[in-house]
Specification:
- The radius of gyration is 26 Å and the shape is elongated.
- Helix 6 links the parallel strand 11 and strand 12.
- By secondary structure, the chain is α/β, with parallel strands linked by helices.
- Helix 7 packs antiparallel against helix 8.
- The chain has two domains: about 160 residues, 2-Layer Sandwich (VC0802-like), CATH 3.30.2130.30; about 210 residues, Rossmann fold, CATH 3.40.50.
- It binds adenosine-5'-triphosphate and magnesium ion.
- Magnesium ion binds next to loops.
Length: about 400
């Protein structure tokens, strides 16, 4: 027999013109994240109903909590349409709410669809409410403004629900175009990707590695981060680009203070080239204003000027602490802080330019010999893997 979950949706209900499209996408995303378990998702008057077989409530809740577009969800317990069975489920809902610290006042609301039953809505609510009070004397009934509600629907079976898990909010992934995330092994870029996926964007990702200066472990770390992102963004393609020749050429050609700036520009150019082939309409980075020398306004103006696609920097106005909170929430933090070398740290100068002159830095770039060819070669050697929503890598 299948279990039933009620799912509340957020902003998508407001998007009149696109509503049907958004609902269809959300339905598909829910089914996808539950694979391979058999599911049925139905939509009735703006509410989603998920029926699923053979998996624990804990598993379903963990999965649903990663589907953008969902604001809340609750397990609806089915039982016989008789008082003792309804009571048992009502106790469970009451206990879950108390355990979560949701408050101590409640009411019972009944919808009796099966009119053959001997009691009406009010009588059912009063009877079950009384039994809950007997069981948990510390609770109080408040019909006007309760902390939580036990809902009972009496149809072909009895359904009892009322303990609501929080969903992640946002918009269903795949509803807002595609973007290319520059994913490093740090704390910031996975959070940036999470935030854009939250607004419905489909994510591709690209990582630049510098073997033998960076270790295979650094690459594994980025794959692990992509795996962590995969359920949130309903699967992700990850490109890994060998960047050593580009990096070495930059370091040999320009003033040491500007190497990071130019390597960031080179990354953006390669990312843009891959993005355009994939139909991605934006680049995404984890930059925050003035966090480091390459993220001052002047530096960002330079790296921006290297590409034509819009560059989204969702962390631009965030403090590191705020970013870390999100990183912890999505369980990326422990992976992000593992100490493997990143090409940026290895090749970064002791005294980086903080306020680069735009024109001058652009002129410097043009003096780097063979750059176009090196960028093309790096891109040609890129490897692609797909990480499905389950987080298991598929080559
Ligand atoms: P992060 O924590 O995301 O690494 P950061 O604060 O360490 O960011 P930088 O290392 O200066 O900052 O990188 C700024 C941004 O440039 C990153 O957020 C990421 O989007 C991109 N980036 C940097 N290094 C790489 C890389 N090796 N591969 C892909 N993208 C990168
Ligand atoms: Mg970094």
């Amino acid at each position: 027999m299948s279990d039933l979950y009620l799912i509340k949706i957020g902003e998508i209900a407001l998007k009149k013109g696109n509503k049907a499209l958004f609902e269809k996408q959300l339905k598909a995303n829910i089914k996808k994240i539950m694979r391979p378990h058999p599911t049925r998702v139905t939509i009735r008057s703006g509410r989603f109903y998920l029926e699923i077989e053979g998996v624990s409530e804990e598993y379903v809740c963990e999965r649903l909590s990663k589907v953008f577009g969902i604001t809340g969800f609750t397990r609806s317990y089915s039982c016989a349409k008789e008082l003792d069975a309804l009571e048992e489920k009502a106790f469970l809902v009451a206990w879950q709410n108390m355990d979560a610290g949701n408050g101590m006042t409640f009411k019972v609301e009944t919808r009796r669809v099966d009119k053959s039953l001997p009691m009406d809505n009010y009588e059912f609510s009063a009877e079950i409410g009384g039994r809950v009070l007997d069981k948990f004397p510390e609770l109080k009934v408040d019909v006007r403004n309760p902390d939580w509600i036990i809902h009972m629907e009496l149809r072909e079976k009895g359904y009892v629900y009322g303990y609501t898990h929080k969903g992640p909010g946002g918009l269903p992934v795949h509803c807002a175009g595609k973007g290319m995330l520059l994913l490093s092994g740090g704390i910031d870029s996975p959070v940036a990707g999470y935030l854009m996926a939250k607004r419905g964007m489909t994510l591709d990702a690209v990582y630049f590695h510098t073997p033998p200066y960076t270790s295979p472990e650094s690459l594994d770390k980025v794959k692990d981060l992509a795996k962590i992102l995969a359920p949130w963004c309903s699967g992700i393609h990850l490109y890994t680009v060998p960047f050593t020749d580009v990096q070495v050429q930059i370091n040999r050609s320009v003033r040491p203070e500007t190497t990071t700036l130019h390597s960031r520009a080179a990354m953006m150019k390669i990312a843009q080239s891959i993005a355009e082939k994939r139909g991605d309409l934006a680049l995404i980075t984890g930059e925050a204003l003035s966090q480091v020398a390459s993220q001052t306004l002047e530096s960002l103006a330079y790296t921006n000027s290297a590409v034509d696609l819009p560059v989204f920097r969702p962390l631009i106005g965030m403090d590191k602490e705020e970013t870390i909170l999100i990183s912890r929430k999505i369980k990326a933090f422990e992976t992000s802080i593992q100490p493997f070398d990143d090409c940026c740290t290895l090749f970064s100068p002791d005294h980086p330019e903080v306020k680069p002159d735009l024109k001058k830095t652009q002129e410097d770039w043009k003096t780097i010999e063979d750059m176009d060819r090196l960028l093309e070669e790096a891109e040609a050697k890129a490897e692609k893997i797909f990480i499905p929503v389950s987080g298991d890598i598929e080559d």
